[in-house]
Amino acid sequence: MIDTSTGSTPQPAFDPAPRQPTAESLARWLVQHVAAYTRLSADAIDRTAPLTGYGLDSVAALSLCGDIEDEFDLAVEPTVAWDHPTVEALVAYLLDALGPRPETA
Amino acid sequence: MTGGQEARTAARVAELNAAFGDPGDPVNPVGHDRLLEADEAGELSAAGEKLLDAFGLNAEFVPTALGGRLERVDSLARVLREVFRRDVALGLGYGVTSFMAAVNVWTGGDERQRTRLAEILLGGGRVSVAYHELAHGNDFLRNEFEARVQPDGSFLLHGAKQVVNNAGRADAWLLFSRTDPAPGPRSHSVLMVERAEVAPERLTVLPRYGTVGVRGCLLSGLDFDRAPVPGRALVGELGHGADLALRSFQLTRSALPGMALGAADTALRTVVSFARGRRLYQRTVDAIPQARATLGDAFLDLLISDCLCLAGTRSVHLLPDEASVYASAVKYLVPALLQGAMHDLSIVLGARFYLRQGEFGIFQKHLRDLPVLSLGHAGAAACQATIIPQLPRLARRSWFRGEAAPGALFDPRGDLPETPFGRLALTGDRDGLSASLVAAADTAPDGSPQEAAVRALARQLTGELRLIQQESLALPPQDRTALASPAAFALADRYAVLLAGAAVLGVWRRAGDRGDDPFLADPAWAAAALHRLVRRLGRRPADLPAGCVGRVQEELLRRHAERRSFDLYDTALAG
């Protein structure tokens, strides 16, 4: 009764995240997203600076949460980027949420 | 207390209607003539305020658990519709601003704050809400008004809030305040401050603003000069003002448009009266095909709007984790539909729509008043911006796979569980409303030509959902921010139209199951409404089968002649 096909598959907007994320790979993935939302180059994003300083507005912050959920198959509060407002803080949050991994210890 | 909800709501609607009396009676103190005079004088109708005091309108805004009459958001909209039917300024200025303020406390306040606010409202007091500052508009995370946190946990209020309804006469204000100078969403908090707590020399009430419509509303502002207030003023957690506001918006965005539908009802009634009475080209205006079609289309716009309002308000109770996107769709699309209908009706009314007094003078008042609906607390673009980031998630996770919304979502008179203030989510990843459209495209009856037309239109809308899905998945990152391209905003528009179509289908099918409303159960109106929505999407649907348009026009004229409302409730009106 309900068609589950989604029609043509569009090109993904981003590279997929690595299967076994490390602090470094997560940080790169996040920087890439923040840069795209804020129309800045990845080099311009300081991992310790508040994201709102780069013009990441609240709508984009919600979009970023959706990306995290889809990428890591992880349910996160839509306010995750509000409570962890830098790339570094988000990486720490994600490492914790994704469970301990030897390569990040 | 769930049993008997419908009887309680219907009784209050009837009571309010009777209290307002015949709008056309020139000696009625709350009839059209007197309300127009109050508007010309820039005053809220004193007789109207007295009437609402006697009715205890404020109790509608207070949950039953706190001693009020607020059981259901759809019923709140239905009762307030009776006030907006008469006077938008009274609806907004007497009361709804108090509701918009109170929702923050019902959602995030502690026991003391909830009890105290209920006490103020049930005692007939008013509460103002101040989210916005003129300099920052809907970009309210840039607000500058400060509540400086003091070492002992108390606050110092400093700065100004502009264009606040009832600022000068409210007993308490809900103030969206900066509690941290750093940028970002965690720098804002909501405070409930009572007038009596503020030293008078620390507060200036700003001069009143003149406005195009709702001229009787007392819009001014507040300017605090380092005014100390106790720490207990904080509503919810420090730094959580933005989430609280976004949760509260779900109730106000879905409820307000349904209230304002009453004003559009009066406007349509006024123009039908004109069209039936005036003779041109040797016939009455309502016999001129173009005029007749415009009136029928306006009626459809009201019905479509009410279907979407119904789904939006009932979703708060039945699907609270999906309500965010529906509330924004209601607040975006319904004002646009109603104002579009008003514009078309003004053409039928001709030169009379420009007159500020007389039999048809109320039309121009409603025409001026109605746009306030899309200005207060989330303009159209802000609502679209709430929808846009959710589209890719819904596209990936929900559309064409999620479960259809329950039939109870579409039941105008069905009981509901109590308002789950604590369960409102900021975003959703499910959409049972669209899923009900997809299901209807496959399973709705299609025996008669009119039913077949409904089914074909539902299929067309399902095809549109597929296109919206593809385009949502392909949205580039910069189109998922507040600075998204016009194309992304257009996508949110099409999605809202599609949700309206799903709501129409749901209401029609539910009415068929219940069998207690022959008009709503008739596929004729559903086909005509869906046809109008598909055309709004820029598509060219097949012509409607014979009888659909005629059935809608006939119902419009019946309700006009019998003085019944032009919405889902077919309510008997005074006069």
From TrEMBL, chain A:
Which residue intervals define the domain Carrier in the entry?
21-98
Q: Identify the SMART domains for this entry.
A: PKS_PP, PKS_PP_betabranch
In this chain, composition skew of type Polar residues spans 1-11
- State whether keyword Oxidoreductase applies: no
Which Gene Ontology terms cover its molecular function? phosphopantetheine binding
Key words of the record: Phosphopantetheine, Phosphoprotein
- Source species, domain of life: Bacteria
Coiled-coil intervals = none
Report the Pfam families cross-referenced here: PP-binding
Supply the name of the protein. Phosphopantetheine attachment site
- What is the source species? Actinacidiphila paucisporea
TrEMBL record, chain B:
Cite the Acyl-CoA dehydrogenase/oxidase C-terminal domain residue spans from the record: 239-388
Which InterPro entries would you find in this protein's record?
Acyl-CoA_Oxase/DH_mid-dom (IPR006091), Acyl-CoA_Oxase/DH_mid-dom_sf (IPR046373), AcylCo_DH-like_C (IPR036250), AcylCo_DH/oxidase_C (IPR009075), AcylCoA_DH/ox_N_sf (IPR037069), AcylCoA_DH/oxidase_NM_dom_sf (IPR009100)
Listed A to Z, the keywords are:
FAD, Flavoprotein, Oxidoreductase
Ranges where the Acyl-CoA oxidase/dehydrogenase middle domain occurs: 130-226
**Cofactor(s) the protein requires to work:** FAD
Pfam families assigned: Acyl-CoA_dh_1, Acyl-CoA_dh_M
Q: Does the keyword Transmembrane helix apply?
A: no
Please name the GO terms that the record assigns under molecular function. Answer: acyl-CoA dehydrogenase activity; flavin adenine dinucleotide binding
Family per UniProt?
A: Belongs to the acyl-CoA dehydrogenase family.
The molecule here is called: Acyl-CoA dehydrogenase
